[in-house]
Amino acid sequence: MSLSSLLVRALSDPLNAVGSRRAIGYLGWNVPVELILAADAVPVQLGALPGCGTELADRFLENSFSAQSRIVAQRWLDGGLDALDAVIFSRSDDNAQRLYYYLCELQRVGVCKGPKPLLYDLARIQRGTSVAHTMESTRALAAALRVDESRLPAAMERVAVREKMLAELSKRRTADEVPLGSVAYRIERGARTDWSEEFDRSLQEWLSNCATGAPRKRVLLVGSAPADDRVHNAIEVDGTVVVGEINEASFLAPRAAVSGDSVETIARRYYDRTNAISTLLQSPADLVSAARALRADGVIVWMVATDTGLAWQAPRIERALREASLPTLMLTSKPQTLNADTLDQIAQFRRTLEVA
């Protein structure tokens, strides 16, 4: 099957790739997929689906929940996730953490059934006790998933191979001739959803033959992780190309030093990852350096209203980018769905880049 067909299958519904195998879902960006693979299960990242209503979820969730969380709740309540053995919720994702507690309570009072909810309690503070807590949480999660520790080295290698290809894709986007950003981001989303070896083969073939072009203008997209291709498609008009993203979804986990204990290595890797992206988003100087490395002609900072943690960083990010003379469009406190006003702002920003 071609990579394009695999992406359609995975992104139309991540459960399409499950088949009859044991499957474990997860919500959030910092969940150790290695543990799911070592538990002889199919990892399924849950998120937004095209055309999925949220009528049941709206009865229980406030407006502060993200669109992805609302859709996961909807599918949980209507039985659409019953095929999953369990679902892991990342504590480092505020929406995922809150949804975990809501669903546990709804199960307790008998409103719904569904898979077993599990919380991955990854600490975010940079101190020794946080590292120790994350290692303890990782061991607890491994036990809950019934991980076969003898399978962990192979699972870690499996993830390393996938991320090596994604790193190659990111490298291609720094060149003079680049693939469309919407295509690259679609591949990154699919790579978190379809963990089949067929996907690896198709991605490798695509990397060997991918179509590229010289963009007229290069844009860096910073902030919230888009749930689909619409933000990229709105930007990529008349030769403008998104050459990179800085958000929790697109950030590859750094390779932790391998210790004799595989669970400890995995725990350290995800602890380092969540702190690395937090540090980057809180360091405007590093964002400027990233934009320079990508030779960005402009930066769009897109933050959805439900991503409350990012809002505190917006003024510092804007000031640093403007002081660096990087044309910047601030789109903050936005709804998940692009509205006419946002589309007009993006179009006007593209026109200013053309005359710059």
From TrEMBL:
The lineage of its organism: Bacteria, Pseudomonadati, Pseudomonadota, Gammaproteobacteria, Steroidobacterales. Belongs to the FldB/FldC dehydratase alpha/beta subunit family. This is 2-hydroxyacyl-CoA dehydratase. It comes from Steroidobacter flavus. PANTHER family: 2-HYDROXYGLUTARYL-COA DEHYDRATASE, D-COMPONENT-RELATED, DEHYDRATASE SUBUNIT MJ0007-RELATED.
